[in-house]
Amino acid sequence: MQERPRRDSLPKNQSLATAALPPGTIQRTLAIIMGGGAGTRLFPLTKDRAKPAVPLGGKYRIVDIPISNCLNSGLRSIYVLTQFNSMSLHRHIQASYKFDNFSRSFVDIIAAQQTPAGSQWYQGTADAVRQNMRYFLERPFDYYLILSGDQLYRMDFRALLHQHIRSGADITLATKPVHRHQVSEFGIMQSGVDRRITRFVEKPTDETVLHEMKMSRELLGAIDSNEEEELLQASMGIYVFNRKVLIECLENDLVDFGKHVIPQSIKDRHVSAFIFKGYWEDIGTIRAFYEANLDLTDLVPEYSFFDTEAPIYTHPRFLPGSKINGASLRQAIISDGCIISDAHLERCVVGIRSIIQSGATVRNSIVMGADYFEQDRHGDSGRPPIGIGRNCVIDRAIIDKNARIADGAVITPEGKPENLDADHYFIRGGIVVIPKNAVIPAGLWI
């Protein structure tokens, strides 16, 4: 079966007529993308960069997903909140998202800063918004769309806003139907057919609670799902607040939306669930990030970047086309500016400016490439050149940018612990991670 561009992630419940939105709704909506904290779950990929700046799918960054969803939904007022290692994120956003001087459109970063009002780091998602409310209230926005910065999905936020306004909700949050074996990873919501949320439990395990909170047959039928399925609503960390409601919800010391603000608001406010049935994956851990990337190599992937109606935008780099010198490729994504010479690649994602020498074998791996072309192909200062050397074997690994892997190196998690910190590498969830700018000596067996 041949892959083709398609609307793979916008199910029926999102095909609402956006013309039904009141005039000016999009212009009066501000999007706030949570850049996250130190990104410890994605370490060592976040050792030298903010979580939203981690490369994805060969040529993108994680932050491109929520920004592109906003742009494809007509939203042109976007802030990204971050506080750790934000330099590369700044560079990427400034190079990627430029609007003309006669537009009020913007994609700006707000990094944590010391002010007369306080000097603390963001303590959580709600605290991050609270610390920057003076910026968010400068313009007459009526709605605030708060998004997570580490998820892979495609959503038309106009459908979310349409339901929020039509239902008269104070807060609307996106939920994803999940099976019982998945609930231990999420906050679980309970709502009736009217979508009003009446209960919230964080990562429930009690069987009685799970039985009580499962979606009713009527609700399953309303979203065109099998009424016999046993599904529960997981919070996606995507919220819409009315202006006044957001101000009132943050007039306290609550620090997190999912853990504190939403459960508190359910008691005395109209909180509505927008049930999303498309592809959605939290890529906040090394294992989830690894699997989501390799899933892109499937013949017909669940999430496709080949969607011409809702494209994912990124930095236009104007790199040359990749050059393949006799390599064997199977289920591989090859990004721009690569040179691959007589190597064997199987189920892998190869990032921009990757150099893979003859005799190398790369399986089930992510090679993130390089930030620049090295003029001296023989390396410098006695170090091996950037890229993967001759006769290397790489299996179940993530090779971060600018890594120098010398001839004959073997990188595999075989026979090693599930998690490990070593001199040249890390293992997380059974995946070997070679950090950015690492040097792997010739013949080293990892």
Per-chain topology:
Elements: E1 29-34, E2 55-56, E3 60-61, H1 64-72, E4 77-82, H2 87-96, E5 106-111, H3 125-131, H4 133-136, E6 143-148, E7 151-153, H5 157-167, E8 171-179, E9 187-191, E10 197-202, H6 207-213, H7 217-222, E11 231-242, H8 243-249, H9 257-268, E12 271-275, E13 280-282, H10 286-295, E14 323-325, E15 328-334, E16 339-341, E17 344-350, E18 355-356, E19 361-367, E20 387-388, E21 393-395, E22 397-399, E23 404-405, E24 410-411, E25 420-421, E26 426-428, E27 431-434, E28 439-440
Parallel strand pairs: 1-4, 1-6, 4-5, 8-12, 14-16, 15-17, 16-18, 17-19, 19-21, 19-22, 20-23, 21-24, 22-27, 23-28
Antiparallel strand pairs: 2-3, 6-11, 7-13, 8-11, 9-10, 9-11, 25-26, 26-27
Describe this structure in words.
It is a single chain. The protein is an alpha/beta fold and 446 residues long. The chain folds into 2 domains: 284 residues, Alpha-Beta Complex (Spore Coat Polysaccharide Biosynthesis Protein SpsA, Chain A); 118 residues, Hexapeptide repeat proteins (UDP N-Acetylglucosamine Acyltransferase, domain 1). 19% of the residues lie in helices and 28% in strands. The chain has 10 helices and 28 strands. The strands form 6 sheets. Strands 1, 4, 5, 6, 8, 9, 10, 11 and 12 form a 9-stranded mixed β-sheet that branches. Strand 4, helix 2 and strand 5 form a beta-alpha-beta unit. The longest helix has 12 residues. The chain starts with 28 loop residues before the first strand and ends in a 6-residue tail after the last strand.
